[in-house]
Amino acid sequence: MALLQIAEPGQSAAPHEHKLAVGIDLGTTNSLVATVRSGLTVVLNDALGRPLLPSVVRYGKDGAVEVGYEAQRLQSQDAKNTIVSVKRFMGRGKADIANIEAIPYDFVEAPGMVRLRTVAGEKSPVEVSAEILKTLRARAEASLGGDLIGAVITVPAYFDDAQRQATKDAAKLAGLNVLRLLNEPTAAAIAYGLDNGSEGVYAVYDLGGGTFDISILHLSKGIFEVLATGGDSALGGDDFDHRIYCWILQEAKLAPLSSSDSRLLLTRAREAKEYLTFHGEAPISARLSTGEMVDLMLTTQIFNDITQTLTMKTLQAVKKALRDAGMTASDIKGVVMVGGATRMPQIQRAVGEFFKREPLTNLDPDKVVAIGAAMQANLLAGNRAAGDDWLLLDVIPLSLGLETMGGLVEKVIPRNSTIPAARAQEFTTFKDGQTAMAVHVVQGERELVDDCRSLARFELRGIPPMVAGAARIRVTFQVDADGLLSVSAREQTTGVEASIVVKPSYGLSDDEVANMLKDSMTHAKDDAFRRALKEAQVEAERLIEAVRAAIVADGELLSDDERARVEAAITKLHTTALGENRRHITLAMDDLEAETKDFAARRMDKSIRRAFAGKTVAEIEKTAKGNEA
Amino acid sequence: MDFNADHFTLMGLPRAFRFDMAALDRRYRELQAEVHPDRFAHAGDAEKRLSLQWATKVNEAYQTLKKPLPRAKYLLHLAGHDVGAENNTAMPADFLMEQMEWREGVAEARAAGNHHELEHLHHRLGEQMRCAYDELADLFDNAPDHETAADRVRRLMFLEKLLHEIDDAIAALEE
C-alpha cells in the first residue's frame, strides 16, 4: 500500500499526483470496473482479458467463494449455492421479490432484508454483493498497482433508500471508500455527453438485467441537470427470460421442476433471447434431470407477443418521466440506450417509434455506465483541474413522507427534487400530557402508508407534558448527494431538545457491518486488527492530504497563529498514524478536524463569494468549449 | 454571505415577483458549481458537512423562487404576511361556487374518459391562472398590497391543486 507520504510542513504532498479511483457498475447480470488512466477512460479486464464479471457468487462447503465465470458455469449443477442476480434482493423483503417461485434459493425471512441459506451459512444480499465488489477491487488494485482512494458505485436511478443503503453497506464491507453512489442513467449521460459535446434535453433509457430506469436530463455547458427520473427497480432482461421460461413450461407441459432444472431452463431461456437478437428463431433444447427432453422453437413473433406487456410497461414509465419533466417526446434531442437488454430488437423498435427518432447506440451498452462512473470518480478524487470539470445535479426518484393519522402519507420531499435536499415539517401531540411520538418514515407515491415502502420507525421521547396540540415537533428530512435519507425530530416550544438521527431500519447497523467485516476477515485469515489499523491510517492520510490541499489553495484565510496550530495538529496526526494505536489516530483526526473547522467555514464563504464574482461563468464556458473540441 | 440570508439575497436578485429568470438559472448553477458536495468528495468531514448544508440551501432557494406560487408565498412570508392557509379557509361564496363547477366538469370528463375535454379544461384553467399570476405580480411589484396578494395566493392554491388533479386524470387515461 501507499503508506503515508510525508512532505515538508506547509507543502502539499505531491499536489499533481494522480489518485487511484474507479467507477464500478454493480449490475444484476454483469459487473464492471473502469478507471481514467493517462486521460483515457478504460474498462479494466481480468487476467484473461475479459471486461465483464458475471454477477454470480458461488459458496463452497469449505468456505471457498467463487465469483464470476467459474461460478456462472456451475450454476445449474449447484443452483442453491450459486447466487445470480443478487441485486434484485438488495434492500428487499421476501414479499417484494417477483417470480420468487422460479428462483431456486432457500430464502430466509429476516427483518428488513431477505437472507439466502447456502452451504456456507445464511448470507445477506449485502454480503453476496460485497463478494462481487471485492473481486472488482482486487482486479483494479492489481491492474493499477496501488490502493484505491475511492470508488463511485452506480445504482439504478429508481432504487429507493433501502436499496441504496444496502449498496453502500456492501461497498463498505468490500473495503471500498464510496466517493458517491451515482445513478446509472446519469453515469451513462456523462459518458455520452462528454464524448459528444451534447447540449439540450436527452433521455436515457436504461434496461438492465433486473432494473429499468428512464432519466430525462438537460445538458448544457458542463452541467448535467436531471429533470425527472422514473422506472421500475424490478423490471429487466431477467423478466424477458422468465416469460420465455413460462412459455417453455407451458409448451412442454412440464411438472414442477427441481431447482437445478429450473436454473437450466432459465439459462436456456436467456440464450434463446440473446440468439433472437440476430436470428428469426431460436431452438431451445434441454435434457432435464427427470430424463424428460425439451425441444422447442421460439420465433421472434412469439417472443414479441409474450413480452409485449413488459415493453409497454417501460414506455409507460417513459411517459410519466416526460410529464414530470414538463416535456413531450418531441422536445427530446436524443435517446441514449443503456444496458444489455436494450439489444433486443423489439425494445429498440418500440423506443424508436415512441420518440420518433433512432436511439443512440454508438457506445457499448454494457460498458457506458462503468465508463461514466470512472469519469465521475476521477473528478471526485480531485484529479481534474477547476475549470476543466463538470457538475451533476441529480434528483431523488421517489417521494419521501411521514405517516399521519389514519394511515395516510404526508409527503415531505416530493419525487424529482434536486439533491441534496432538506425539508422540515411540524407536527403536534393529539393527547393531553403526551410525552412520546411515533415517527414512521415511508417512501413512495401512493396515499396510503400500506402502499408505500416503510423506511424507518422511531420514537421521539421526553416531550414535556403539555395540553394536546401545544407541542411543536419539528421533523427534518435530509437527503444527501448519494440520495440517502436521514431523519431527525425535535420538540421546539420548550427549548427541551429531544432529537434523534435514525439509520433506517432495513439497513445493517454499524455493529452488523463490523461483525460481517470481522467474519469475512477471519475467513480470509486476515488480521482484523491490522486491517482496521490500516484503514485508520489511510483515512488519516486522506484527511492530511485534504487539509494540505486546502492550505495550498486558501492558506491566506488562516492567521499565523491558526496556521501554526493546524500544522501542529497535522504533525501530531502524522506521528500518531505511524504508530499502531487506532484509537489515538481517531482522536488525532478529531483534533485536526476541530482545528480546521473555522477554516472550512471561511473557505466555503470564499467559494460563495467567488460564485458572486461570476468567475465560474467563464470557467463553465471554458469547460463547454473544451468538451466541444 | 450569511447562511441565514434570504433566498433573493442568496440568488443576487431584487426582492420582487418578477425578475430575470435566466439570471436565476445562471446564479443557481454558479453557486452549485462552488458548493456542491461533489466539489468536496475528497475533503475533510467539516467541509463536507458545510457543503451539504449550503448545497441544500441553494436548492431550496432555487426551487422556491423558480415557481410562481412558492415564490409568492415566500414574498408574503418575508413581508410578515404568512398566508395562513390552514386557519384561513373561508373563501368567498362565488369563488367556491366556481370551484365546484370546475370540479364537476373534471369529474364528468374523467368518468366519461373524455381525454379531449380534460385537455380543454387544462388549457382553460392554465389561461385563468396566467391572468391570476399577472395580477399577483402587480400586487407585489407595482401597487403593493399584501392583504389582497395573500387572498389571491389562497385562490391560486386551489387552482394549482385543481390543475394537478386534471393532469393526474389525463395521466390515468393515458395509462
Shape of chain B: globular
Number of domains of chain B: 2
Query: Beta-strand level of the residues of chain A, as a percent range?
Result: 15-25%
CATH superfamily of the largest domain in chain B: HscB, C-terminal domain
Residue runs with pLDDT of under 50 for 5 or more positions of chain A = 1-15, 615-629
* Largest sheet properties of chain A: 6 strands, mixed
Mean pLDDT of chain B: 90
DSSP strand content of chain B: under 5%
**Most extensive interface, chain pair and sizes:** A-B, 53 and 36 residues
What gyration radius of chain B follows from the Cα positions, in whole Å? 20 Å
Computed structural class of chain A: alpha+beta
Brief rundown of the structure:
Chain A is of the alpha+beta class.
Textual characterization of the structure:
The complex is a heterodimer of chains A (629) and B (175). In chain A, the strands form seven sheets. In chain A, strands 1, 2, 3, 4, 11 and 12 form a six-stranded mixed beta sheet that branches. A five-stranded mixed beta sheet of chain A has the order 18-13-14-15-19, sandwiched between helices. In chain A, strands 21-20-23-24 form a four-stranded antiparallel beta sheet, with no helix packed on it. Chain A contains 15 helices and 26 strands. Chain A is α+β, with helices and mostly antiparallel strands and 629 residues long. In chain A, strand 11, helix 3 and strand 12 form a beta-alpha-beta unit. Chain A is 38% helix and 24% strand. Chain A is globular. By secondary structure, chain B is mostly helical. Chain B has two domains: 60 residues, Orthogonal Bundle (Helix Hairpins); 82 residues, HscB, C-terminal domain (Monooxygenase), CATH 1.20.1280.20. Chain B has seven helices and no strands. The longest helix of chain B is centred in the last third of the chain and has 29 residues. The mean pLDDT of chain B is 90. Chains A and B meet through helix 7, helix 9, strand 19, helix 11 and helix 14 of A and helix 2, helix 3 and helix 7 of B.
